[in-house]
Amino acid sequence: MTHRYLLLFAAALGVFPAPLVAQETKSKRGLVTVTPEALAIHQEAIVVDGHNDLPWQYRAKKDFSFKTIDITKNQPELHTDLPRLRKGGMGAQFWAAYVDASVRPRSQSVKETLEQIDVIHRMVKTYPQDLEMAYTVDDILRIHKTGKIASLIGVEGGHSIDNSIGTLRTFYMLGVRYMTLTHSETLDWADSATDKPKNNGLSPFGEEIVHEMNRLGMMVDLSHVSPDTMRHVLRITKVPVIFSHSSARAIADHPRNVPDDVLKEVKKNNGVVMVNFFPGFVSPEGARLSQRMFEEYREMKEKIKDEKELERAWKEHVKAMKTPPCSIHDVVDHIEHIIKVAGIDHVGLGSDFDGISAVPTQLEDVSTYPKITQELLNRGYKKEEILKVLGSNLLRVMRAVEQAAAK
């Protein structure tokens, strides 16, 4: 059971229940109310979200026809639909082409990832009044002027290429503009943050993959990788990197988050860390709980080999766990910490909506992005700084990657 399945399983048992809003019961910070000033700044921005897992929901619900999930209508069981994307002012969305790492032993990684890439293309074609595929920064700017939402593809997990650089190149030709090097499991060539390391970061083949991504113009995404992998990539990459949906480890001590020494290297690299909204990575208590859950499940799995007995034992184990408090203020704390360590040019938004089983108070779905603008304004940030956080930082990185590849 990988990290996403572990969290969803916990959700089914009432730990981080979905759809759940983690209430900020311990904080004295009040609700954020969007003012006309903040709304005007938000409307001026090209809001970019680095990671949304709506395509996974089509696979999970076995709906590849877009009939069960019609996103022109309100989808209360999901975080994402078109009316709420419009309300949130979304300018460009990276849709995740994710399949679970457990498919690797069955040699299904490439096939199922291609299916998810196909889902994204067909989803965009199904809603042409609202969505349009984008492949470059110029595409994003052009599409934004038409009033549509620019749609891009990110592959979540290097297991999806099945150790094949030819597959990596094919993904790029199909529109993939970033690849997350690992997901929850360590690969032959890169170490994950939530699995045992075996490469001290990257293997020589892993270095080759990073260099090929640089050559292609595909952004290297360091969410989910181990700190050693982060540092290794930052040493060898020729272009800026991204973290499509990660947060600050100094605030919430989870291995998925970015340590301060790495944040300083991201500044030197001119990259961007796009902050995740999941309470299990954002709240200090949530980080402790989700990390402990993952470790305890692995230990239990080693001891109990029968799957039904394992499920029963795990269900009993998690019953006593409580959902920690979390709110929009906690998310903006991460944004502000990254600003303090790496600088205003190196932070963005990577919600992980529809791939997470709990959300913070006031960040319940894709309609709520203007509240981040308001909270940044409340904390004294100027319009030009807020525009960078909302999207222009990511556009700068993507442009740099494109320009390097063109050479």
Task: Characterize the main sheet.
Answer: 6 strands, parallel
Instruction: Give the structural class.
Output: alpha/beta
Mean pLDDT over the residues: 91
Assembly of the depicted chains: single chain
Secondary-structure element order, as H and E? HEHEHHEHEHEHEHEHEHEHHHHEEHH
Low-confidence segments:
8-19
According to CATH, what is the class? Alpha Beta
Shape: globular
Q: How many helix segments?
A: 16
Q: CATH topology, anyone?
A: TIM Barrel
Q: Report the sheet-strand fraction.
A: 5-15%
How many strand segments? 11
Radius of gyration, in angstroms, nearest whole number:
20 Å
The domain tally reads 1
CATH architecture: Alpha-Beta Barrel
Describe the structure.
Keywords: Signal. InterPro entries: Dipep_AS, Metal_Hydrolase, Pept_M19. It is a single chain. The protein is of the alpha/beta class and 407 residues long. It has one domain (31-278, 326-406): TIM Barrel, CATH 3.20.20.140. It is 46% helix and 12% strand. It has 16 helices and 11 strands. The strands form 3 sheets. Strands 2, 3, 4, 5, 6 and 7 form a 6-stranded parallel beta sheet that branches. The protein has a 3-stranded parallel beta sheet with strand order 8-9-10. A two-stranded parallel ribbon has the order 1-11. Strand 4, helix 6 and strand 5 form a beta-alpha-beta unit. The radius of gyration is 20 Å and the shape is globular. Mean pLDDT is 91; it is low at 8-19.
